[in-house]
From TrEMBL:
<dbReference type="InterPro" id="IPR036390">
    <property type="entry name" value="WH_DNA-bd_sf"/>
</dbReference>
<keyword id="KW-0418">Kinase</keyword>
<dbReference type="InterPro" id="IPR000835">
    <property type="entry name" value="HTH_MarR-typ"/>
</dbReference>
<dbReference type="InterPro" id="IPR000600">
    <property type="entry name" value="ROK"/>
</dbReference>
<dbReference type="InterPro" id="IPR049874">
    <property type="entry name" value="ROK_cs"/>
</dbReference>
<dbReference type="GO" id="GO:0016301">
    <property type="term" value="F:kinase activity"/>
</dbReference>
<dbReference type="Pfam" id="PF00480">
    <property type="entry name" value="ROK"/>
</dbReference>
<dbReference type="InterPro" id="IPR036388">
    <property type="entry name" value="WH-like_DNA-bd_sf"/>
</dbReference>
<protein>
    <submittedName>
        <fullName>Sugar kinase of the NBD/HSP70 family, may contain an N-terminal HTH domain</fullName>
    </submittedName>
</protein>
<dbReference type="InterPro" id="IPR043129">
    <property type="entry name" value="ATPase_NBD"/>
</dbReference>
<dbReference type="Pfam" id="PF01047">
    <property type="entry name" value="MarR"/>
</dbReference>
<feature type="domain" description="HTH marR-type">
    <location>
        <begin position="17"/>
        <end position="56"/>
    </location>
</feature>
<dbReference type="GO" id="GO:0003700">
    <property type="term" value="F:DNA-binding transcription factor activity"/>
</dbReference>
<comment type="similarity">
    <text>Belongs to the ROK (NagC/XylR) family.</text>
</comment>
<keyword id="KW-0808">Transferase</keyword>
Amino acid sequence: MAYDMAITRGGLVPSAILAIIGSRGPTSRADLARLLDVSSATMTQLTKTLLARGLIVELETSPSQGGRPARLLGLARSAGSAVGVKITADHVAVVQVELDGSVGTPQLFDFDPTRPDCLDHLAHVLEGAIAEMDGPLLGVGVGVPGSVDAQDSGIVQAPTLGWPDAQVGPMLRARLGLPVLVENDVNTLAVADRLYGAGQRHSTYIVVTIGRGIGCGVVVDGSVYRGAYGGAGEIGHIPIVYDDGDLCGCGSRGCLEAYVGEDAMLRSARRDGILSSSGTTTDLLTAADAGHEGAQAIYRRAGRTLGAALSGVVHTVDPEVVVLSGEGITAWPHWEPGFQEVFRRHLLPRWRSIPFLVHTWDESKWMLGAASLVLATPFDTVGVGGSQGRLVRDRLQDNTPKVSV
């Protein structure tokens, strides 16, 4: 990871130290001094002050090639926290996340995105939730199932919520008095992986979610790739059938989601007599787990279709690893047989051994992802967070000692 040396001069050095430890995990003083291009004596002074302020803690020693083993430094939770918000079609989930990635107790609130005053109601809900949180808050991250023009402006187009041009960022900033960053929900998972998951070991990867639809977050050289208008990664609308394909929720026909999304799989199960008209995805998974051949065939077929589509994405992006996640991942044992065979077969030889990681799922992953928009800003060297990211860095700086270098 490359750090912008402009942020490591003067009083910003302590913030950069927190950022590095937050992204890399426990780190020695020697490694911090090397990454920030400061002397060992300066780093000793800085970390001594941060330890005294309770912002970092000393952990175990690291292996040594000779001489005294180095003590590792980790983040203390008091360094600051972020609010993570996930908006869905029927509820809002809110949680406080510490700088070290520790997730608090989530709160769930009923939410109707179609009501005329939905954004006012959203702000009211968040005001109440934030009032109960302890410690210094760096900002609010919001994940939405739709396209966002930019994280710092936060104008949302989300057809699934009925939002053609929702002023999410401006409304929440005015009401909450905190920096607010808004992003597509799958992109937030990609940011979380950059801080706490595969992104600590890989700088270019894709995060693919399966569930109601198929989403994809693309990270290139350590930064989320958003495209020209914030809509990069909409792989669920790759056409896989060109003539008379099934109708997709986007209004087009033949899209990937029209064959492997939740609604598509339920239609197949009902058509084949596996489920009744009221059957759910839980019922379909239960049948597959019980050995129902028809239910297993639906997942296997979906896995094959997804595998073919993702092979094309790998050829386009050239990632180091593919991360699979989302609400539907609990059924992955039934997707995988079809996926593995087709995915590998359609890859060119140089990519055929690319690893894919399957993440276990719970809703707190969405909230951690949203909070990660805020927690990532101290080392956002390309300015994705814009003006709101700068405000987050200012708040973190206010919590760190001012030391001249």
